[in-house]
Amino acid sequence: MAFDGIVIANLVKELNGAILNGRITKIAQPEHDELLLTIKGNSAQVRLVLSASASLPLVYLTKTNKPSPLTAPNFCMLLRKHIANGRITKISQPHMERIINFEIEHLNELGDLCRKTLVVEIMGKHSNIIFCREDGMIIDSIKHISAQVSSVREVLPGRDYFIPETQEKSNPLEASKESFWESVYHKPMPVQKAIYASYTGISPAIASELCCRANVDGDRPQEALSEEEKLHLFHHFSWMMEDVKEGNFTPNIVKKGKEPIDFAAVELKQYADLDAVPYASISEVLETFYADKNIYTRIRQKSVDLRKVVSTVLDRARKKYDLQRKQLKDTEKREKYKVYGELINTYGYGLAENSQKLDALNYYTNEMVSIPLDPQLTPQENSQKYFDRYNKLKRTFEALSELTQETKEEILHLESIAASLDIAASEDDLAQIKEELIQFGYIKKRPAGKKTKAKSKPFHYISSDGYHMYVGKNNFQNEELTFKFAVGNDWWFHAKGIPGSHVVVKTNGDELPDRTFEEAGRLAAYYSKGRENEKVEIDYLEKKNVKKPNGSKPGFVVYYTNYSLVAAPDIAGIEAVVD
Questions:
Q1: Apex CA 212: angle with CA 209 and CA 214, to 5°?
Q2: Mean pLDDT across 548-575
Q3: Residues near 83 by Cβ (< 8 Å), separated by ≥ 6?
Q4: What integer best gives the mean pLDDT of the chain?
Q5: What is the full DSSP assignment across 413-462?
C-alpha cells in the first residue's frame, strides 16, 4: 500500500492525458486538508481530488462529488481568487519524488497573463498542498509549517519553496550500473533496504518486488550476494525504470478473496499466489482500493467487541472442558471398585479378623489382585464401601459425560461464530452474528424497542459451468441455506472436522460437472478455519442426506454417508454475483 514515486509517475501520465490544458471551473475544500477541483478538459468534465491528510494523502481523478462547507475556508477562497478559470499548462513530477506540480496560467485583475504553481506533496504526515508564485515564493499552503514545527523547512507565506533534501537519495531514472553499485552495494544493510534507502520514489514494497523478480533474498546483506545476483538485480531495476520512463504501467489491486491487500502501478510478482485485478486507470485503483479497504477496516473495528465476547466465552468454555475431561478420567476406576466389592463378597468369608488386604483371583481377567481393606470393618462392610464408591463414580461419570458433551458442543458453536466474524463483510452480517450471541445468552438482550431485521444475504457465486453456488456467512444463514433454501438433490459442501460455511450448489435437477464440484469445494475450503492451509479436506453429499439433530444449535448438522475431496482454499477466478 505504497503511494510511491512509481504510482505518482503513473498518475502524472494519466493526468497529462486527462486534464492538461483543461480549465479549472470550480474549486472546493470539502475537508480542512483536501481540495476538489472541477476541470473541463477537451472531451469531458472531471474532478480531481487533492488530499494532504496525514493518515491518507491521495491524488486521483473521480466522477464523485463531495459536499462542501457553506463558508469556504481561506485557502479555498485564495485559490478561487487567483486560479479560478485558470488553465493547467503543465503537470510534472520532479526527480521521481512523491510530488506533483501543477503549473497554471490565469489572468489577474488587470487582465495580464500570470502563472502560478500548485504543489501537492504526498509524504505521509508531512503531506501538504502549497500555492506558489512563478518565482517559487509561497503565497499560501493548506497547512502552515513554522520553524517551531520543523527545523528543516518553513512552509509559510512569503518563504521560498524548495524540496528538502533530508536524505542522500538519487533519481532512479538516472541510475547507471556504476552508480547503482556505488549506492546499493556499498551500504552495510540488507540489499532490499539499501535499494529504497538509495533512490527517491522507491518504496520498501517496490524494493521487495525487485528482489522477488531477481530471485534474490532481500534480507541478505549485499556482501552475501554473488556478482551474478548483483548484476541480475540491477537488470531488473533498470527494466522497471525503463518502463516508468516509457509510461508502461499496469495499475492493479492485489486481492485475497474479496479483501484488497495491496496496489501498485506495476505487476507485483511477489503476490503470485493471490489474485491481481488489473485496471485501466491508476485513479480507479486508488479510489477503489481505499474505498474497499475502508469497508474491511470499518467492519474489523466494529467487530472488535463481538470478537472480545466470543474470545472470552470460548476461553472459559475450553478451560471448563479440560477440567471436565480430567474429572471424567478420574471416574475410569469405577469398574475396579465394583469388581473389588464382588470379589470381597465371593472370597471374604474366610478372612481373618482385622485383615488389611484380600488376595483373590479376578475371575474376569483370571489374574490375582490385592484388595486393600479397612481392618475396622467387616468383609460385608468393606464390600459395601467399594460398591458405594462405584455408584458415586458411576453417577459422576453419567453427569459429567452429559456436561462434557454440552461443553464440547458449546465450543464448536463458539468456534463457528468466530469463523463467521472472520468472513463478515458488512454491518448487516455483524448484526446477524450479534443476534445469535444474544439468543444464546452471551450478550445481554437489548432493551425492547423497534426491531430491524438484518438484510445480510449469503455469498453468491456462479460456477464456470453456470451453476449457482451459495455460501452461508453465519450459522443462521447456514441453517437457512441447508434446510429452507436447498432442495433434496442440491449438493452440500463443508470443510471436514473444522468450523466453516455451508456451501449449497443448486443443480436444477442436472448432474453436476466435475469442475463445479471442484469450485464448490474451493469455496468451502476458503470460507472455513482451514483458509490458511495449503489444502483442506471437504465433505460433500446431496442435501437430502444432511440431517439436523433435535434441539441442536443453528448450523449444526449430521450426516452418515458422504464423498470427500481435497481443495485449495483459493477462490480466484470464481465469478461472484452482487445481489
A1: 110
A2: 91
A3: 24, 27, 104, 106, 116, 118
A4: 91
A5: HHHHHHHHHHH--SHHHHHHHHHHHHHTTSSPPPPS----------EEEE
- Predicted local distance difference test score (pLDDT) of residue 450: 52
Region 384-396: mean pLDDT is: 92
Per-residue pLDDT tens over the stretch 537-550: 999 999 999 999 98
Is residue 97 within 8 Å of 173, Cβ to Cβ? no
CA distance 191 to 506: 53
Of 155, 119, 156, 158, nearest to 137 (Cα)? 158
SS (H, E, C) 173-191: HHCCHHHHHHHHCCCCCEH
Residue 527, C-beta contacts closer than 8 angstroms, at least 6 positions apart: 423, 459, 471, 500, 501, 503
Distance (Å, rounded) from C-alpha 103 to C-alpha 373?
104
How confident is the model over 252-258, as a mean pLDDT? 85
Residues 76 and 28: beta-carbon distance below 8 Å: yes
Q: What is the pLDDT of residue 424?
A: 86
Q: Residue 16's closest CA among 199, 266, 243, 282?
A: 282
Q: Average pLDDT for residues 461-488, to the nearest whole number?
A: 94
**Alpha-carbon separation of residue 541 from 163, 463, 482, 484 (angstroms):** 66, 18, 12, 17
d(C-alpha 211, C-alpha 206), whole Å: 9
Q: Would you place residue 551 in the very low, low, confident or very high pLDDT band (cuts 50, 70, 90)?
A: confident
Is the pLDDT at 35 greater than 70? The verdict is: yes
Which positions ≥6 away from 279 have C-beta within 8 Å? 251, 252, 253, 285, 288
> What is the pLDDT, as a whole number, of residue 250?
95
| Interior/surface letters 201-229, b for 16+ CB within 10 angstroms, e for the rest | bbbebbbbbbbbbbebebeeebeebeeeb
Evaluate the CA torsion angle 15, 56, 290, 31 in order and state its sign: negative
First to last CA, the chain: 29
Condensed to tens digits (0 to 9), the pLDDT of residues 178-195 reads: 999 999 999 899 999 999
Return the pLDDT at 291: 85
Measured distance CA(439)–CA(206) in Å, rounded: 49
Residues with Cβ within 8 Å of 273's Cβ and at least 6 positions away in sequence, in order, are: 570
**C-alpha cell of 304?**
472488535
Which residues are CB-neighbours of 350 under 8 A, at least 6 positions away? none
**CA dist list (Å): 82 to 76, 106, 135:** 10, 7, 16
| DSSP H helical ranges for 60-201 | 74-83, 177-184, 191-198
- Long-range (24+ apart) CB contacts under 8 A made by 340-345 are 340/369, 340/371, 340/383, 340/386, 341/383, 341/384, 341/385, 341/386, 341/387, 341/390, 342/383, 343/369, 343/371, 344/371, 344/373, 344/379, 344/382, 344/383, 344/386, 345/379, 345/380, 345/383
- Beta-bridged to residue 40, according to DSSP, are 23, 45
* Full-model pTM: 0.65
